[in-house]
From TrEMBL:
<keyword id="KW-0067">ATP-binding</keyword>
<dbReference type="Pfam" id="PF00005">
    <property type="entry name" value="ABC_tran"/>
</dbReference>
<dbReference type="InterPro" id="IPR017871">
    <property type="entry name" value="ABC_transporter-like_CS"/>
</dbReference>
<dbReference type="InterPro" id="IPR003439">
    <property type="entry name" value="ABC_transporter-like_ATP-bd"/>
</dbReference>
<dbReference type="InterPro" id="IPR050107">
    <property type="entry name" value="ABC_carbohydrate_import_ATPase"/>
</dbReference>
<keyword id="KW-0547">Nucleotide-binding</keyword>
<comment type="similarity">
    <text>Belongs to the ABC transporter superfamily.</text>
</comment>
<feature type="domain" description="ABC transporter">
    <location>
        <begin position="260"/>
        <end position="506"/>
    </location>
</feature>
<protein>
    <submittedName>
        <fullName>ABC transporter ATP-binding protein</fullName>
    </submittedName>
</protein>
<dbReference type="GO" id="GO:0005524">
    <property type="term" value="F:ATP binding"/>
</dbReference>
<dbReference type="InterPro" id="IPR003593">
    <property type="entry name" value="AAA+_ATPase"/>
</dbReference>
<dbReference type="InterPro" id="IPR027417">
    <property type="entry name" value="P-loop_NTPase"/>
</dbReference>
<feature type="domain" description="ABC transporter">
    <location>
        <begin position="12"/>
        <end position="243"/>
    </location>
</feature>
Length: 526
């Protein structure tokens, strides 16, 4: 039986929760109480057991031991339908969407069958207008960016009128303006007497929104606090057990020659959806990190595809690596030119979920010389490479060489970033480098990016986390509606100015090639 607690009966409770996967305990005796009218944070490093606990509360997993209660009564959550029937809604970090269906069809999957298509679209429009979560109901999910897919998850949850809303990294792909809109929604839901369980590695958000926090480490509850009384650094230290240091750009590193050059790149999109790229020009020098900011759906995925070779440019010279035109080359040939790439979508794009980590290591190295330095046969070399990445980037896993899909989102992100950084590329293009990782891992990844630039690589980092861009980028440009603004030194702009450009204000220009004086300023700033 659950213990007797002081104060009002919790809306939902979890007591003595144990979840085993073989010999591994993802949750080990976890107690959690969530009360109506509060936003409760669940904090922990990657692999701490947060997502497992949330899946138990949402009926996706059955606990090995322990009970879940609703208003003091023990309940059995056999599946998500049972959880939704009790008023539990969840916004997932990894999107639970059917890519071949439209936005409206995905939302209809969890709505009453009696609700017709016209009524559903009307409800979607109302929620979208009220909360600023606008989406075209007829667009297929496969054509949407990660940020737009996140909006589907949020709208789908809100349409169910939940009493408890579980949010797993809800702002990880949202811009500051979009996040502010979401916070307004969450505070309104709290004021209506609903309960919210909030998982985020953005600790300033937690301090702003949440009145209570439960902290997991190694599958166990290791503490609780009022996050409003803590600093972001103290919360991070509670999560990981050590103080999190600040990243340090390499000092005194001059910029090298231009290594990545885009020259008037224009790219139309296939079909009716997507964002066309319009006359994009940009240079990235060796030793430099250039950050690309923008609201999801403004051409980030298309720009990444044009750089990686997944989409070919109309002319070879529109994309150049180290002076060589590569615009008409595919991804394998571009990797042979010394480039590496990390897309924003982990599962299915950056990694094959059903393949082992060693096989996933092979996917991006099979046609390059990157394995030869291990001095083994290819199968042995890929296992050695995977273990090298796992150790260097502290990837938490169950088993010696598990399938990529069994890792938590943050740990898979660490593996993918490590896989590409440790290839020592001359050019690295990354979309959302620290999506879903904890504070310690984010600092480690950002430091690794800065160190790679310090060794002479040219880095293009696409991110919706402005704090991240201002921390690591020497210059920042904004992508809006397929058009790129001029890249300016991070030290000469502000979050507010970048935010205006992201929203289409502030005079977005198409020229992004900084003059030599600007490049020198960027070098000093970096």
């Amino acid at each position: 039986m659950p213990p007797v607690t002081e104060g009002p009966t919790p809306l939902f409770g979890a007591y003595g929760i144990v979840k085993r996967f073989g010999d591994f305990k993802a949750n080990d005796g976890v107690d959690l109480e969530i009360r109506a009218g509060e936003i409760h944070a669940l904090l922990g490093e990657n692999g701490a057991g947060k997502s497992t606990l949330m899946k138990i509360l949402y009926g996706l997993l059955e606990p090995t031991e322990g009970v879940v209660t609703h208003r003091g009564d023990i309940v059995k959550l056999a599946n998500p339908e049972a959880a939704r029937a009790l008023g539990i809604g969840m916004v997932f970090q990894h999107f639970s969407l059917c890519e071949n269906l439209t936005v409206a069809e995905n939302i209809a999957l969890v709505m009453p069958r009696s609700l017709g298509a016209r009524a559903l679209k009307k409800k979607m429009s109302t929620v979208g207008t009220t909360y600023g979560l606008h989406l075209d109901p007829d667009r297929p999910v496969w054509s949407l960016s990660a940020g737009e897919r996140q909006r589907i998850e949020i709208i789908r949850c809100l349409l169910q009128d939940p009493r408890l809303v579980i949010l797993d990294e809800p702002t990880s792909v949202l811009t500051p303006g979009e996040a502010e809109g979401l916070f307004t929604v969450l505070e309104r839901l709290r004021d209506e007497g609903r309960a919210l369980l909030y998982i985020s590695h953005r600790l300033d958000e937690v301090r702003r929104l949440c009145s209570r926090a439960t902290i997991l480490r190694g599958g166990k509850v290791v503490g609780a606090c009022d996050p409003r009384q803590e600093s972001a650094r103290s919360l991070a230290a509670m999560m990981v057990g050590v103080q999190v240091g600040e990243v340090k750009p390499p000092s005194g590193v001059p910029l090298g020659p231009e290594r990545l050059v885009l020259s008037n790149l224009s790219l139309t999109t296939s079909g009716l959806h997507g964002t066309a790229l319009v006359d994009i020009s940009l240079t990235v020098a060796g030793g430099e990190i250039v950050g690309i900011a923008g609201i999801a759906g403004n051409g980030q995925a298309e720009l990444f595809d044009a750089l990686s070779g997944e989409a070919l440019a109309p002319e070879a010279g529109m994309v150049a690596f180290d002076g060589q035109p590569v615009g008409r080359l595919g991804i394998t040939q571009r990797r042979r030119h010394g480039a590496c790439f990390v897309p924003e979508e982990r599962n299915g794009h950056a990694a094959a979920p059903t393949l082992s980590l060693s096989d996933n290591a092979l996917l991006s190295r099979h046609a390059t010389a990157g394995l030869s330095r291990f001095g083994f046969l290819r199968s042995a070399a890929t296992k050695a490479l995977a273990q090298h990445v796992i150790g260097a980037f502290d990837v938490r896993k169950a088993g010696p060489d598990p399938a990529a899909g069994t890792l938590s989102g943050g740990n898979l992100q660490k593996f993918l970033m490590g896989r590409e950084i440790m290839a020592e590329p001359g050019i690295l293009v990354v979309n959302q480098p620290t999506w879903g990782v904890d504070a310690l891992a984010a600092a480690h990844i950002r430091q690794a990016l800065l160190d790679l630039a310090g060794r002479g690589a040219a880095l293009l980092v696409i991110s919706q986390d402005l704090d991240e861009l201002f921390e690591i980028a020497g210059r920042i440009a904004v992508l809006h509606d397929g058009t790129l603004s001029r890249a300016v030194p991070a030290s000469e702009t502000s979050r507010e100015a970048v935010g205006l450009l992201m929203g289409g204000s502030g005079g977005v220009g198409t020229e992004a090639v900084a003059p030599s004086s600007t490049r020198e300023a960027a070098s000093h700033a970096h």
